[in-house]
Write a structure and sequence with these properties.
The protein is mainly α. Helix content is 73%, strand content 0%. Helix 1 crosses helix 3 and helix 7 runs antiparallel to helix 8. The longest helix has 30 residues, at 217-246. The radius of gyration is 19 Å and the shape is globular.
Length: 270
């Protein structure tokens, strides 16, 4: 069980912030292991860890926004537009969840649909603007209402499995006129609340089962090891992604996303 959890942790930690859809890679891993369903409790816990990594990585941005939220200037404008983007995301995700309940349960077994979404994700990455940029100096992104709306909309659409949250939001920010540095920082500043809220809710509901992980010192040690690996990989993945976005290389991930989509379709059918 420890080795399996470590394998999922490796995939989640590396793929969460790369624009290649961590959900697609996790489904592909599940198919390759021959499982009928994903270990949702484990994956939910790993999502909490990766969201925490993003919060730590952008702690300066969060701190600056909170300290100056009520003061006149660019920071207050950023806070308002940030809130609008999150509201748009929440409304869209709620609509997608409501619509998904109308889909027959047996349709969700066709994992080739997820592969198609990953191929679409690759196309979006390939068509994203390709311009380089300076390093982020810690200043909060200069947002317009249009950019905030487009990025919030992209983050909501990215709830569809197979679409990358980081890929879609960064591409939307670039299309809306943000510089690569500001597009990447804004998109990753948006991500943790969306990742943490549902994950923590699910963990609280499943606490009797989750608490079994701490039944012995061996399970505690295993949990700490898996958590540490996920956190460190997520920090590295986030740093690499931000560096490549600022170098105008978001499209580099397009071939990989398309390839994994094709492999997922073939594996699901086979």
């Amino acid at each position: 069980m420890f080795l399996t959890a470590l394998l999922f942790a490796l995939v989640q930690g590396v793929a969460e912030f790369l624009p290649v859809s961590s959900s697609g890679h996790l489904v592909l891993l599940t198919l390759l292991l021959g499982w009928d369903r994903q270990p949702f409790l484990l994956l939910t816990s790993l999502h909490v860890v990766t969201a925490s990594a993003a919060t730590v990585y952008y702690r300066r941005g969060y701190g600056r926004a909170l300290r100056r939220m009520w003061k006149p200037g660019a920071e207050r404008h950023f806070a308002r537009r940030y809130a609008v983007a999150q509201v748009i995301t929440a409304i869209l995700i709620a609509g997608l969840l409501s619509g998904s309940r109308q889909i027959p349960p047996e349709l969700w077994h066709y994992d080739w649909l997820l592969g198609v979404m990953m191929m679409l994700n690759g196309m979006i990455l390939f068509l994203a603007p390709r311009r380089g940029d300076e390093l982020w100096d810690g200043a909060l992104p200069m947002l317009t209402w249009r950019a905030a709306a487009w990025v919030g909309l992209a983050q909501g659409i990215a709830a569809v499995p197979g679409l990358s949250r980081s890929g879609l939001t960064v591409a939307a920010g670039l299309r809306a006129g943000l510089s690569p540095a500001h597009a990447s920082s804004f998109c990753f500043l948006l991500a943790p609340p969306v990742m943490l809220a549902p994950s923590l809710y699910f963990l609280l509901e499943s606490w009797p089962q989750a608490s079994a992980w701490f039944s012995s010192w061996q399970s505690i040690a295993a949990t700490l090891a898996v958590t540490s690996v996920t956190f460190l990989l997520a920090m590295g993945s986030l740093h690499w992604t931000v560096s490549w976005v600022r170098a105008g290389r978001l499209w580099w991930f397009a071939p990989w996303s398309g390839l994994v989509g094709i492999v997922t379709i073939v594996t699901a059918i086979w």
